[in-house]
Design brief:
Elements (H helix, E strand, L loop, with lengths): L1 E6 L18 H11 L1 E6 L14 H10 L4 E3 L17 H9 L5 E4 L8 H13 L3 E6 L8 E2 L5 H9 L5 E4 L1 H4 L24 H8 L3 E4 L2 H9 L2 H10 L4 E2 L12 H11 L5 H16 L2
Parallel strand pairs: 1-2, 2-3, 4-5, 5-6, 5-7, 7-8, 8-9
Bound molecules: zinc ion.
Length: 291
């Protein structure tokens, strides 16, 4: 019954990446979902060139969704530099158009710009005005990576959360989830820090102080955040059960999805409530996507 808040696909597998993988086609993706008890996936189409090995265009994304009724929900993914590469660009007509086409959110935002770049803040303000949630990839630096840049401690994200209180932010990626622990370092924040979670993690603090911040638990980063210190992870899932979303970030047919098993054993072992499991697994997504 799970809903996957974060997947990628391309119509054809496309060229090999340096690691020898390709994207999963929609058919491969559905087979992976079937094998894991996932009934629906949110497709995040291609956006910024910084992270593109192959591309799923916005129109192809809508076509994939239409070809497989009941299996996918589309997001739209305009880049903050589109239209006029200006902080005055009016994204509302474009976003309203995609809403009319069935898109339920925006992302994954992968532009490698500062989180407080005027073009990013303008774009996010239009997303807020249109009532569309935004999934973002956070980056540790400018250059040689992708995603919105913020420093250790996430000051730029915090300012954006406060500036745009009605915008639902879905946080994702290694430097976002590394901040679940108060002892994260500059050297470790781009990876998958292990060991006990200490007090004053910025993600915990920001989720407590900013009701518009949600957590996208997809990928190795989301799984690592809740599993590195299981007792903490279970408490975190319980505390924020209304704002956490199950996801996989499947990009390739070989991807692993350990979060499926982690959440199942957490509920079956009595470490989290069934209510929290169902909310994180699918009910929060049903509410966010208007299903
Ligand atoms: Zn992704």
């Amino acid at each position: 019954m799970l809903i996957d808040i974060h997947v990628h696909t391309t119509v054809r597998a496309g060229p090999l990446r340096p690691n020898g993988e390709t994207y999963a086609t929609p058919e491969q993706l559905m087979a992976m979902h079937d094998a894991r008890g996932i009934r629906l996936g949110v497709i995040l189409p291609g956006g910024a060139p910084e992270c593109a090995h192959h591309n799923l265009s916005q129109d192809e994304c809508l076509d994939v969704v239409a070809r497989h009724p009941g299996r996918f929900v589309p997001f739209c993914n305009p880049d903050p530099r589109m239209l006029t590469n200006s902080p005055e660009a009016n994204f509302t007509p474009m976003l309203e158009y995609f809403k009319g086409q069935g898109c339920k959110g925006v992302g994954e935002v992968c532009a490698n710009l500062p989180f407080d770049d005027p073009r990013v803040l303008n774009f996010l303000a239009h997303c807020e005005a249109c009532g569309l949630p935004v999934t973002f990839h956070l980056a540790t630096q400018i250059g040689a990576t992708y995603g919105l840049f913020d420093e250790l401690g996430l000051p730029r994200l915090e300012a954006a959360l406060k500036r745009l209180p009605k915008l639902i932010f879905l946080g994702h990626s290694q430097p976002f989830w590394a901040e679940i622990s108060g002892d994260v370092t500059e050297a470790a924040r781009g990876g998958y820090p292990k060991g006990p979670v200490t007090e004053s993690g910025r993600v915990v603090e920001l989720m407590r102080s900013c009701p518009n911040l949600c957590g996208d638990l997809s990928a190795g980063s989301g799984h690592n955040a809740v599993s590195r210190d299981p007792a903490f992870g279970h408490r975190f899932l319980e505390e924020f059960q209304d704002r956490l979303f199950f996801g996989t970030d499947i990009c390739a047919p070989t991807n692993q999805t350990p979060l499926v098993e982690f959440l199942r054993s957490a509920v079956e072992g009595g470490h989290i409530s069934r209510e929290a499991y169902e909310k994180i697994g699918w009910r929060n997504a049903e509410r966010l996507l208007g299903l």
